[in-house]
């Protein structure tokens, strides 16, 4: 009988431990959600949110002086535009951020579609801003032809063209 009583006590303890672990997990999840909410509130009050668009746009111009177009999507102006909706809208409305780029076909050997997309995006987003273009290509290729075909219609906007 003593053994049976001890086994029941053990089962009761195990059941109580299981319930407490479930409660602990629930409280931990609740705490994590509370922490995330605090972070969201702090983010809303961050000083950078109080910067006027003109100043933020100027900061963007310093942070994104010239885009290097390769087959890797690692472009400062694109990164800036992915931070939040406000920054995306500001980056897209600041045409000068998109008007200076360097196209290196020698290191971009693979994904032509990415290069075409980056060039098209920059030409569209730069709207009527003067363009500063640099092009490096050691071979005659269809990619080079695409780039020439893409930028020639914008020749009236060329401020600088380096080949």
Overview of this structure, please?
- By secondary structure, the protein is an alpha/beta fold.
- It folds into 2 domains: 1-45; 51-162, no CATH class.
- The chain has 6 helices and 4 strands, in the order ααβααβαβαβ.
- The chain has helices spanning 2-44, 53-63, 76-81, 85-93, 112-125, 142-151; strands at 67-69, 100-104, 131-136, 158-162.
- Strands 1-2-3-4 form a 4-stranded parallel β-sheet, with helices on one face.
- Strand 2, helix 5 (112-125) and strand 3 form a beta-alpha-beta unit.
- Helix 5 (112-125) runs parallel beside helix 6 (142-151).
- The longest helix has 43 residues, at 2-44.
- The mean pLDDT is 88.
Counted up, domains total: 2
Tally of contiguous helical segments: 6
What distance separates the N and C termini?
95 Å
* Helical content class: 55-70%
Main beta sheet: 4 strands, parallel
Beta-strand level of the residues, as a percent range? 5-15%
**Secondary-structure content class:** alpha/beta
- Give the overall form: elongated
Please, what is the average pLDDT? 88
- How many DSSP E strands? 4
Compute the CA-based radius of gyration. Answer: 28 Å
Write a brief caption for the model:
With 163 residues, the chain is an alpha/beta fold.
Secondary structure layout plus pairing:
Blueprint: H1 2-44, H2 53-63, E1 67-69, H3 76-81, H4 85-93, E2 100-104, H5 112-125, E3 131-136, H6 142-151, E4 158-162
Parallel strand pairs: 1-2, 2-3, 3-4
Helix pairs in contact: 5-6
């Amino acid at each position: 009988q003593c053994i049976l009583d001890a086994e029941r006590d053990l089962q009761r303890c195990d059941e109580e431990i299981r319930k407490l672990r479930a409660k602990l997990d629930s409280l931990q999840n609740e705490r994590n959600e509370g922490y995330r909410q605090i972070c969201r509130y702090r983010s809303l009050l961050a000083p950078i949110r109080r910067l006027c668009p003109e100043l933020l746009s100027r900061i963007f111009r310093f942070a994104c002086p010239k885009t290097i177009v390769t087959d890797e999507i690692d472009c400062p102006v694109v990164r800036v535009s992915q931070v939040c909706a406000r920054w995306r809208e500001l980056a897209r409305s600041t045409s000068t951020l998109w008007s200076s780029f360097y196209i290196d076909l020698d290191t971009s050997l693979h994904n032509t579609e990415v290069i075409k997309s980056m060039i098209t995006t920059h030409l569209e987003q730069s709207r009527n801003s003067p363009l500063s273009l640099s092009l490096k290509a050691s071979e005659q290729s269809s990619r080079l032809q695409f780039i020439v075909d893409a930028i020639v219609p914008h020749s009236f906007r060329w401020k600088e063209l380096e080949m």
